[in-house]
Amino acid sequence: MISGMKTALRLTFVLVVALGWDAPSPYGLQVGATASAQGMRDRTRITNRDDAAAVAETQAAEITLTVAPIGQQLLQTWIRTAGVIDEARKTLTGCVVDADAALIRTGQRVRAFPPDSKSSIYQARVTSVATRSDCVVVAATLSGPAYTDATRYVMEIIVDRGQHLAVANAAIIERAGKQVVYEQIHPGHYEPHEIHTGLKGETYTEVVSGIAEGDEIITIGSFFIDADYRLKMTPGGGIDAHQHH
After folding, report:
1. CA 73, CA 164: separation in Å to the nearest integer?
2. Helices and strands (DSSP H and E) totals, the chain
3. pTM for this model (two decimals)
4. What are the pLDDT digits (tens) for 101-135?
5. In 10 A of CB 159, how many CB atoms?
6. Which of 87, 67, 33, 79 is nearest to 230 (CA)?
C-alpha cells in the first residue's frame, strides 16, 4: 500500500513538473494538479481514435491501474436529507425537497448516521411517504435502536434504478463539456473514447453510446493516463507548446 502511494506521488510529481503546475507543498501538489488538469481539459478537444497515442509500457508499469470490462450494473440513486429521531429512538423522519423525491417508495433501504460520526451507520427501511406542499415527508424505521445520543441524522435513501450498461463514475473524465473514458487495447496501450451517458447513479453511470459491452476500461488511474495522453498529443511534449482549438 505504501509502495503504491509512493509510486503515485512520484508520477504526480513528474506530471506537475512536465505541465508546469504550481505546487508549493505536498498537500498543495495534489490540489494544484487537479485544478490545472481540469483547466487543461477545458482548453482542449478530443482527438479522433485514429490519432490516439499509446502510453509507453514503461510508464504504464509504474501506475497502479484498475481495468474492468463494461457490463450491466445495478444503478442506484442515493437521496440524502436530514432526519430527526423519535423518543423511542426507532423512527427517523425527514423532509425531502429534491426533484428525486418522487422516486421514494415504502420498503426502500436507508442508511442513517449522525453528522459527526459517519462510522455509526444504522440500517433502516422507509415505512411511510407523505407529500406536502413544500416537501415529501419520509419516515424510516431502524432495524434496531440507535445507541448514540444524537437526535439528528443524515438519511441516505437508496433507490434502485435497474440494470443498465454502465461504467464506473471514477472512469469518466470531463473535458470541454464532453465525457471521455480510456479503453485498454492491450497492457500499455490505452485509447480515449468520447461517450454519451444517460442515468447517473451513485457509483455507476449509464452508457448510451461510445463504448460496447465487454470493452476493458480504465477505472482507477484514468487521470494519469489522460495526463500522459494530453502530453503526447501536444507538439513539443508540453502544454504551453501548443493549444488545440
Report:
1. 5
2. 4, 12
3. 0.66
4. 999 999 999 999 999 887 889 999 999 999 999 99
5. 18
6. 33
